[in-house]
Design a protein that fits this description.
Strand order of the largest sheet: 6-7-8-5-9
Helix content: 25-40%
Protein name: VOC domain-containing protein
Number of strands: 9
CATH superfamily of the largest domain: 2,3-Dihydroxybiphenyl 1,2-Dioxygenase, domain 1
Distance between the termini: 36 Å
CATH architecture of the largest domain: Roll
Organism: Panagrolaimus sp. JU765
Radius of gyration: 21 Å
Strand content: 25-35%
Shape: globular
Oligomer: single chain
Structural class: alpha+beta
Order of helices and strands: HEHEEEHEHEEEHEHHH
CATH class of the largest domain: Alpha Beta
Number of helices: 8
Length: 251
Amino acid sequence: CVPTTGEIAQNLAIHGDFIKDVAYSVDDLETCLALIEKNGGKIIKQSKMIKDEFGSVKKAKIAGPTGNLVHTLVQNVDYAGIFLPGFKPAENFKLPGKLGRLPINSLDHVVENYPENMSDEISDWYAKMLKLNRFWSIDDVQVHTEYSALKAQIVSNSDNSVQVTIIEPVSNYLERRGQVQEFLDFHGGPGIQHIAFKVSDIVKTVDEMRERGVEFLDIPDTYYDQLEARLTSANMRIEENLKDVRKLKLL
């Protein structure tokens, strides 16, 4: 049921289907909130303890760097339940159990798209508010096609277990609209373009997801023809079978 009033209804009217909240697990919520407040961040919901029979967590919510994105911050105090207090296993939906678990290890990273000339500002915001520091960046000299170009930065925590990719378009590139600007136009402003999952066996995982009806991008055969030619000329081998890569449309 789609809400017709309130903040989410307004957001849906602007963005359509979109990602509203990217939550982060933190070690000390009060220290995080103090840092955010000191650096001028906006705290939407102050720290609150929630609990059930499996233990307690503390939660708070802050505004993201821009747009309608928010971040929930969660500190596990002593919780040992399946997800968060109040959530219970589904007892009347047995299909997932019959299908078995998908071989997905974890969330690898999220990609946030912003208007041109904003990536430095956004990267600085994550450094100040959440101590996610820049460790990799590229510009339009390195990432471009005959149609478009982009700039990107990755910010991460100290052990790289949390990674956020920040991307902006480069305008006046042959006067064509690239994929980043296309997202910004379609989404109605900045936001999460996609999330990435970490897997141990991409062939097995994608094959299983396709069997379950998940739709993936259709990649032309010419891409794989060129890939095979490049690998041959460079005398390089990849772990996956190229026939499987082509069949499953892996990039």
